[in-house]
C-alpha cells in the first residue's frame, strides 16, 4: 500500500486485503471518483427528558438512537427539544466497504443522501456486476411468517426461475428474516444443486439496523482477522437483524440513526436508476409477500414511478387485503366510458394529495378498508395521522389508472408465478407507452419473453400476429436466440409469421446459386454451453472436439452417425476411389443452390431444358434451411424443436428415419444405462413417427407411397427412406405393408406382380425354360402408359414467341411423351412405348417385353438358382468321379472341372462387382459393411472362394503321390460343403423359410459360443486333473500330440461318459455330462428361436430386402455366362474414357430417381400433404394414428376404386386387416375403461352406503335413508 494510505487513520484500512492493487482501485474509486461517504450524528439531543447527572449521561439515548458513548466523535450538546436528521447529521469519510470473507459478498456503507446513479456506477464499473435484463424487488413481511407448503414451493420456484431465465437481479431488504430469509434459502438450495449457476441478489439494508455492524468497519489487517456478520455475537437488541448470507451484494444505507428499517423510497430510486443506466430500459417488477404498513408505503412508492406490482394472494395481510378490494371494485370501473363534466376520467391518475377525489371514488368501501388497515397494523405503533396516510396509499392503489399495474398471483390460477411476473411487466410497458404516446419496444420485450419462454403472453401482448415493424437484424437476432435457448413455440410462431429463414442462412447472389452462410450455422453448433451440461448432449463425444469449425467437419460427423453412403451435404468433396472413378468418367451436374453435392440434380432429358425460376429456387433454399435446422436439433438433442421444424418440411419420412439412425448411433457414445434407455426410446419414437407418416401416404395413394419410400432424396445426400431404415435396423418400417408392396413391385419389375396362381406359375416356369422367348406371350406385363409432357411444353411455350402456329403442330407438340424416372434407378412404374417407323408395334412390344422379362429380379433369381444347382451337381460329380492324379493315359483336367473353375471365377468377379457397387462411398465403409454388417454370410462367401483356390493350387502342385494329392481333395470337399450351405440363401425369398434361415444363422452363432464354453471347461478340467493325476509322470511331453492325447482327449471323452478306469464310481451315470451339455445348448437355441419367432414376418421382410437389393443390379446373364456382361461393361467404360465422351449414364442404383425436378417436386408435395395432419398432431403431444387421420370417405373412395381393377383388390385385404386390427384395439381399450368405471362406481356406492348407515345410527335426519342401486354388469 502506498504511503498516503499508511498515513490514514486506523478506521480507513481494509480488513480483507486480497491484493494491493485491487484495494487501491476500490479505495480510489470510493473516496475520490465516486465520493461515497457515510452519515453520522453530530449533535447529542436526548430522545427523552432525563437527569443532567454527568455519571449517567453516557447511558442516555440520543435522538439518533445511539447512546452518548456510542457516538463516533465528540458531539455537541444541542438545545433543540427534538432531534432532526437534516440538522443534526453530516456526511463523513467512508470506513466500511469490502468483502465478507466467508461468502465473498461485496458490501459498502453509504450515505442515504448518495445519488442512486453513483451506486449504479459502483455496481457496474467497480464491482463489475453483470448487467441485468430484469430487476425483481421482493418486499413484504419482515418478521417470521409461515406460508402454506404449496404456496411456498410455488413462490420459491417462480422467483428462482424468473431470475435464471432473464439473468435478473433480486433486490431485497437484505435481512435474514421474513420473506427475505425465504428467498435466501431458495438461493442457497439452488447453489447447492447447481454450483455453476449464479444469481445476483442485492440487499438494500439499513446500516443502523445491521447486527454486528462494528465488524464491518475497516481496521488494520491482523493475523486470523475475520468478519462474521451472520452470527450474532452481541446481545439481541430490538431493531437489529442479521444480514442474509446468501446475497451477493449489500448496499448499507446510513441515515445517521440506529435501529429501525425505514429507508424511504431509496430502493425505488436506486432500481429506477439502474434500469436506465447508460440508456438501457431494464424492466422492473415488485413482488409483495405478506407485509404490513411499511409494505403498503413501498407499494405506493413503486406505483408512483410506474413499477408494476405482483401481489401474492394468500400470503397474508397487505397482499390479501389489497387483492380482495381490487377484485371487489373491478365491476364498478368502466374504462370505455367517455369522460364528460359529470363523469370520472378513468385513465387519469389522481394524485394522493387530491384526497377528496380519491375518497369519493371508493366512499362505499371506506369503512371496510379502514378496518382492514387497522387489522394489519396491529402490533405496530400507528397514529391516526399515519393511518390516514395508509388509507390514502390504499386508495391510490385502487384507482383505475393505477390498478392496471397490479397483478394478482393466486394458487387457484392456471399461470405460474414467473408468468404472472412477466405479464405484469408487459402490461406496465403497454400502459407507459400509451401514456406518452410512444411505440412499445417490442424487440426488448421479445428478448425477455424468449428468456422467459412465455409464448402465450408474447403472442397476446407483444407479437400480435405481426413482426413487420421489427428490423431484419432484430428478427434474425430473436430467431437465433430462440433456437439457442430451445424455444420451439417461438420458432413456430416466427415461421408462421413468414419470417425469412432463407436469407438468414443462405446468401442470395445475382445470377449465381444461393450460398450457405456457414458462420450462421456454425454459431448454432458452437453456442451450446447450456446443452453441453446435459448427459444426452453427445455431439462433442462423437466429434471429439469442442467446436465444429468447418463444413467438412460437420459432414464428417454426419457420415459417422448416419453412414458414409450419404453424399456430403455441405461440401463438394469426392470420397473414395469409386467416386473418383465416376468423377473422372464424367457426369455433368447442375445446381441452383451451391451448398452441397446433395442438391445436384441430374438432367437426363436431352430434349428439354428447365428454365431457372427464382421463386422455385427460393423454395428449395427454404427446404434446405429446414433440413439444416432439423439435423442441428437432432444432433444437439432438441426433440421438441425438431418436431416444430418437421412441421414445415416436405421430406419428412426420411428426416424422421435419419433422426432414428442418429439416436441409435449416439447409443454407442452414451456412458450410462439411463442415457442409453432414453436414446433407445427416442429412436423408437421417431421410427414410429416415420411409420405413421408412411401409413398416411399409403392410405391416400398406394403407388405414390411406394415411390416415396424408395425415391432418392437429394437434400439428404441422395438417401432413400428404405436405405436409411435398413441401415438403422428399423424392422418395423421395412415391415410396413407399403414397403412389402414396394418390394413386390421391384421383385417383379415390369411384370404384373402377385403371379401366385398355379396357371401363372406354370406360365412363368415355361418362360424360364424357353429362356424368355415365350414370356411376352405367356406372362402378364404392366400396361404401357402414354404420359404427356404437358408441364415442360406449356412452361417453355410461355417463354417463346410463336407466330402462325398450325393446329397440327400444336397437337404434335403437346402429345410428346417423356420419361418420369431415370433408367439407372428403379423404374417399374415408368412404362413407355418404343416408337419406330421401321418395325411394327407388335414386334416392338415383343422385344420390349422380352427385355423387361430378363431385367426383372425374380427372373434373375430363378436363372441363378438353376445355374447354382447345376454348378453343385457338376462340382459333386467332379470330386466324386473325375478328381484323379494326372496320368499319361488320362488328361490332367476334365470338362466338368473346367466348367466349375470358370463358374466360380465368374462368381468371384460378380462378388467383386457387388462389393464395389455397395452404397458406401469409401473403401473402409464398404469393407465394414461387407465384413461386419453382413458378417456371417459374407465370411462364408470369402471362405468358399479361398478354399476353392487353395484346393485348386494343391490339386496342380501335389501330383507326386496319392497321399499328397488327397490334401487337395479334402480341401475341395470342405469347400463343396460350404457351397451347399450357400445354397440355403436362395430360400430366403420364401416367406415361410426365410425366418427359419435367420434362426439357423443365429443358432450357429450360439453354437460357436457354446463351443467356446465347452472348450474352456475341457481345458480347465483337463489341465487341473492331469496335473494331480499324473504327478511327476514322464509319459507327458511338451508337444502337440502328447498334449492332446493326455490332456484334452480324456477330458473330451469324459463328457460322453467314456471315463475308462479313472473314475469307476461314475459308472452308474455315464450320460450325465452329455445331458448337461445338451440342456445348455438347448437353452441357447430356445432363446434364439423365441426372439425370432415373435417377429417372424418383420424378420422375413427385412431379410428379403437384402436379397432383392442384390438381384436388382445384377446382370441378366447367370454364371458362367455373366462374364459376357462384365466384358461388355468394361469395354463401355474404356470407350467412354478414351473417347472423352460425357454422357449421363450411371450404374444401377437401388433408388427411384426422377428424370426431372417436377417429379421430385410432385413427390415432396404429396408427402407433405398426406402427412400434414399427423405431423401437426405431434406438436400437441397427443399424436394421432394414420387410420384416424385419413377420413372414412377417402377410404371408401379407395375401396370403390379397388373394385374396378383386379390389381388393387389384391392389396385391399392388407388395408382391411390393418383397419380391423385398429378397431379391435380401440374396442378392447373401451371395454377395459368401461369395466374400470363399473368397478369404481361399485366402490363409490359401497362407501356412500357406509356413510348413510353411519348417519342413520346417529339419527341425523327424520327421513329414511334412500336405497342405493348397484350397477348390474350384463353379459354383453
Q: Could you explain how this protein is built, in words?
A:
With 1276 residues, this protein is mostly helical. 54% of the residues lie in helices and 5% in strands. Among the domains are: 3-37 and 93-289, no CATH class; 323-413, no CATH class; 501-749 and 1154-1178, no CATH class; 857-987; 997-1031 and 1039-1112, no CATH class. The chain contains 50 helices and 15 strands. Helix 26 packs antiparallel against helix 27, helix 28 crosses helix 31 (737-748) and helix 42 (994-1029) packs antiparallel against helix 44. The protein is elongated.
Estimate the helix proportion, in percent.
Answer: 40-55%
Q: pLDDT below 50 for ≥5 consecutive residues: which ranges? A: 1-24, 221-226, 228-235, 335-343, 574-611, 787-816, 1065-1076, 1192-1218, 1270-1276
Mean pLDDT comes to 78
- Report the sheet-strand fraction: 5-15%
Task: Look at the helices and sheets and give the structural class.
Answer: mainly alpha
Number of strands: 15
Largest sheet: 9 strands, mixed
> Kindly, what is the distance between the CA atoms of the first and last residues, rounded to a whole number of angstroms?
96 Å
Number of helices: 50
Q: What Rg is obtained from the alpha carbons, in whole angstroms?
A: 44 Å
Strand order, sheet with most strands: 5-6-10-9-8-7-11-12-13
Shape descriptor = elongated
Q: What labels describe this entry?
A:
single chain, 1276 residues, mainly alpha, 9-stranded mixed beta sheet, 54% helix, 5% strand
Amino acid at each position: 500500500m502506498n504511503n498516503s494510505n499508511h498515513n490514514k487513520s486506523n478506521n480507513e484500512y481494509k480488513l480483507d486485503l486480497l491484493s494491493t492493487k485491487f484495494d487501491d482501485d476500490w479505495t480510489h474509486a470510493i473516496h475520490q471518483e465516486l465520493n461515497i461517504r457515510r452519515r453520522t450524528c453530530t449533535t447529542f439531543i436526548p430522545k427523552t427528558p432525563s437527569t443532567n447527572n454527568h455519571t449517567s449521561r453516557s447511558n442516555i439515548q440520543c435522538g439518533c438512537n445511539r447512546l452518548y458513548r456510542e457516538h463516533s466523535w465528540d458531539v455537541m450538546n444541542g438545545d433543540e427539544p427534538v432531534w432532526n436528521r437534516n440538522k443534526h447529521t453530516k456526511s463523513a469519510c467512508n470506513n466500511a466497504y469490502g468483502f465478507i470473507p466467508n461468502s465473498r459478498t461485496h458490501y459498502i456503507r453509504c450515505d442515504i443522501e448518495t445519488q442512486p446513479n453513483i451506486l449504479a456506477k459502483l455496481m457496474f464499473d467497480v464491482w463489475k456486476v453483470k448487467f441485468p435484463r430484469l430487476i425483481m424487488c421482493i418486499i413484504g413481511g419482515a418478521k417470521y411468517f409461515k406460508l402454506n407448503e404449496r404456496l411456498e414451493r410455488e413462490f420459491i420456484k417462480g422467483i428462482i426461475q424468473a431470475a435464471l431465465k432473464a439473468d435478473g437481479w433480486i433486490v431485497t431488504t437484505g435481512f435474514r428474516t421474513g420473506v427475505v430469509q425465504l428467498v435466501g434459502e431458495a438461493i442457497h438450495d439452488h447453489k447447492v444443486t447447481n454450483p455453476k449457476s449464479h444469481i445476483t441478489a442485492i440487499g438494500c439494508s439499513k446500516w443502523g439496523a445491521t447486527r454486528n455492524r462494528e465488524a464491518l468497519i475497516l481496521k488494520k489487517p491482523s493475523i486470523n482477522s475475520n468478519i462474521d456478520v451472520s452470527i450474532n455475537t452481541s446481545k439481541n437488541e430490538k431493531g437489529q437483524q442479521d444480514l442474509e448470507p446468501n446475497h451477493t451484494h449489500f448496499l448499507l444505507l446510513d441515515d445517521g440513526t440506529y435501529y429501525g428499517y425505514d429507508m424511504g423510497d431509496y430502493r425505488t430510486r436506486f432500481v429506477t436508476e439502474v434500469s436506465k443506466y447508460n440508456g438501457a430500459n431494464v424492466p422492473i417488477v415488485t413482488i409483495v409477500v405478506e407485509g404490513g404498513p411499511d409494505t403498503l408505503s413501498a407499494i405506493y412508492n413503486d406505483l408512483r414511478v410506474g413499477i408494476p406490482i405482483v401481489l401474492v394472494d394468500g400470503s397474508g395481510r397487505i397482499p390479501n387485503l389489497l387483492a380482495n378490494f381490487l377484485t371487489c371494485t373491478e365491476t364498478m370501473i368502466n374504462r370505455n366510458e367517455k369522460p364528460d363534466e359529470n363523469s370520472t376520467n378513468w385513465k387519469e391518475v389522481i394524485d394522493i394529495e387530491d384526497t377528496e377525489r380519491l375518497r369519493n371514488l371508493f366512499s362505499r368501501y371506506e369503512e371496510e378498508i379502514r378496518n382492514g388497515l387497522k387489522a394489519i397494523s396491529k402490533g405496530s405503533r400507528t397514529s391516526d395521522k399515519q393511518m390516514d396516510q395508509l388509507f390514502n396509499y390504499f386508495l391510490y392503489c385502487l384507482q383505475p389508472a393505477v390498478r392496471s399495474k397490479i397483478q394478482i398471483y393466486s394458487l387457484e390460477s392456471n399461470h405460474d408465478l414467473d408468468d404472472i411476473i412477466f405479464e405484469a411487466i408487459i402490461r406496465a410497458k403497454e400502459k407507459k407507452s400509451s401514456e406518452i404516446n410512444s411505440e412499445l419496444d417490442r424487440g426488448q420485450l421479445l428478448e425477455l419473453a424468449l428468456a422467459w419462454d412465455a409464448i402465450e403472453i408474447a403472442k397476446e401482448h407483444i407479437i400480435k400476429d405481426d413482426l413487420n415493424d421489427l428490423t431484419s437484424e432484430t428478427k434474425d437476432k430473436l430467431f437465433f436466440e430462440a433456437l439457442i435457448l430451445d424455444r420451439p413455440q417461438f420458432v413456430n410462431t416466427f415461421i408462421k409469421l413468414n419470417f425469412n429463414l432463407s436469407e438468414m442462412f443462405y446468401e442470395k447472389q445475382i445470377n449465381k446459386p444461393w450460398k450457405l452462410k456457414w458462420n450462421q450455422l456454425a454459431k448454432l453448433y458452437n453456442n451450446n454451453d447450456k446443452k453441453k451440461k446435459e448427459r444426452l448432449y453427445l455431439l462433442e463425444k462423437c466429434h471429439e472436439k469442442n467446436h465444429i469449425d468447418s463444413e467438412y467437419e460437420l459432414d464428417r460427423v454426419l457420415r459417422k452417425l448416419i453412414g458414409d453412403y450419404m453424399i456430403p451435404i455441405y461440401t463438394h468433396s469426392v470420397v473414395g476411389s469409386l467416386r473418383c472413378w465416376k468423377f473422372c468418367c464424367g457426369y455433368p451436374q447442375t445446381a441452383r443452390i451451391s451448398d452441397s453435392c446433395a442438391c445436384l440434380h441430374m438432367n437426363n432429358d436431352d430434349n428439354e431444358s428447365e428454365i431457372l425460376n427464382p421463386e422455385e429456387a427460393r423454395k428449395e433454399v427454404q427446404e434446405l434451411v429446414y433440413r439444416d435446422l432439423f439435423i442441428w436439433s437432432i444432433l444437439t438433442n432438441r426433440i421438441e424443436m425438431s418436431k416444430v421444424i418437421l412441421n414445415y418440411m416436405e421430406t419428412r419420412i426420411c428426416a424422421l428415419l435419419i433422426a432414428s439412425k442418429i439416436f441409435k448411433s449416439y447409443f454407442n457414445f452414451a456412458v450410462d444405462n439411463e442415457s442409453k434407455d432414453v436414446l433407445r426410446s427416442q429412436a423408437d419414437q421417431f421410427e414410429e413417427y416415420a411409420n405413421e407418416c408412411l401409413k398416411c401416404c399409403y392410405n391416400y395413394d398406394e403407388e405414390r407411397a411406394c415411390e416415396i419410400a424408395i425415391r432418392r432424396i437429394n437434400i439428404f445426400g441422395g438417401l432413400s427412406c428404405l436405405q436409411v431404415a435398413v441401415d438403422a435396423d428399423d424392422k418395423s418400417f421395412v415391415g410396413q405393408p407399403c414397403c412389402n408392396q414396394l418390394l413386390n413391385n421391384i421383385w417383379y419389375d415390369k411384370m404384373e406382380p402377385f403371379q401366385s396362381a398355379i396357371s401363372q406359375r406354370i406360365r412363368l416356369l415355361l418362360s424360364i425354360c424357353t429362356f424368355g422367348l415365350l414370356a411376352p406371350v405367356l406372362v402378364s406385363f404392366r400396361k404401357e402408359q402414354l404420359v404427356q409432357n404437358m408441364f415442360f411444353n406449356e412452361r417453355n411455350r410461355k417463354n417463346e414467341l410463336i407466330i402462325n402456329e398450325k393446329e397440327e403442330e400444336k397437337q404434335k407438340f403437346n402429345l410428346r411423351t417423356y420419361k418420369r424416372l431415370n433408367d439407372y434407378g428403379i423404374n417399374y412404374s415408368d412404362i413407355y412405348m418404343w416408337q419406330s417407323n421401321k418395325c411394327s408395334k407388335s414386334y416392338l412390344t415383343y422385344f420390349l417385353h422380352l427385355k423387361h422379362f430378363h431385367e426383372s429380379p425374380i427372373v434373375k433369381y430363378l436363372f441363378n438358382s438353376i445355374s447354382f444347382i447345376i454348378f453343385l451337381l457338376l462340382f459333386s460329380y467332379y470330386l466324386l468321379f473325375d478328381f484323379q492324379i494326372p496320368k499319361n493315359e488320362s488328361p490332367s483336367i476334365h470338362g466338368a472341372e473346367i466348367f466349375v473353375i470358370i463358374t466360380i471365377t465368374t462368381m468371384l468377379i460378380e462378388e467383386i462387382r457387388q462389393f464395389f457397387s455397395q452404397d458406401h462411398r469409401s473403401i473402409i465403409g464398404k469393407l465394414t459393411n461387407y465384413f461386419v454388417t453382413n458378417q456371417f454370410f459374407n465370411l462364408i462367401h470369402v471362405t468358399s472362394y479361398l478354399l476353392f483356390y487353395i484346393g485348386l493350387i494343391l490339386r496342380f502342385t501335389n501330383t507326386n503321390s496319392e497321399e499328397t494329392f488327397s490334401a487337395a481333395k479334402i480341401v475341395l470337399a470342405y469347400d463343396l460343403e460350404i457351397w451347399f450351405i450357400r445354397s440355403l440363401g436362395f430360400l430366403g425369398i420364401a416367406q415361410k423359410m426365410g425366418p427359419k434361415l435367420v434362426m439357423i444363422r443365429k443358432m450357429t452363432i450360439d453354437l460357436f459360443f457354446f463351443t467356446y464354453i465347452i472348450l474352456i471347461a475341457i481345458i480347465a478340467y483337463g489341465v487341473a486333473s492331469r496335473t494331480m493325476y499324473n504327478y511327476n509322470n514322464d509319459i507327458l511331453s511338451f508337444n502337440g500330440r502328447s498334449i492332446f492325447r493326455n490332456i484334452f482327449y480324456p477330458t473330451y471323452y469324459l463328457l460322453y461318459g467314456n471315463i475308462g478306469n479313472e473314475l469307476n464310481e461314475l459308472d452308474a451315470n455315464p450320460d450325465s455330462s452329455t445331458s448337461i451339455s445338451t440342456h445348455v445348448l438347448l437353452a441357447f437355441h430356445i432363446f434364439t428361436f423365441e426372439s425370432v419367432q415373435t417377429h417372424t414376418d418383420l424378420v422375413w421382410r427385412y431379410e428379403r430386402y437384402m436379397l432383392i437389393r442384390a438381384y436388382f443390379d445384377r446382370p441378366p446373364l447367370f454364371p458362367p455366362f455373366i462374364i459376357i456382361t462384365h466384358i461388355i461393361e468394361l469395354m463401355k467404360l474404356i470407350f467412354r474414357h478414351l473417347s472423352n465422351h460425357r454422357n449421363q449414364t450411371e450404374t444401377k442404383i437401388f433408388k427411384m430417381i426422377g428424370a426431372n425436378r417436377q417429379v421430385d417436386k410432385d413427390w415432396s408435395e404429396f408427402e407433405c400433404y398426406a402427412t400434414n395432419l399427423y405431423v401437426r398432431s405431434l406438436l400437441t403431444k397427443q399424436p394421432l394414428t394414420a387410420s384416424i387421420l385419413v377420413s372414412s370417405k377417402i377410404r371408401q373412395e379407395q375401396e370403390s376404386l379397388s373394385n374396378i381393377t383386379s390389381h388393387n383388390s389384391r392389396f385391399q385385404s392388407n388395408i382391411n386387416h390393418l383397419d380391423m386390427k385398429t378397431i379391435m384395439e380401440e374396442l378392447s381399450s373401451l371395454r377395459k375403461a368401461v369395466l374400470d368405471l363399473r368397478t369404481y362406481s361399485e366402490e363409490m356406492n359401497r362407501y356412500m352406503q357406509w356413510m348413510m348407515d353411519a348417519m342413520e345410527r346417529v339419527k341425523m335426519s327424520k327421513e329414511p335413508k334412500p336405497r342405493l342401486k348397484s350397477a348390474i354388469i350384463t353379459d354383453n
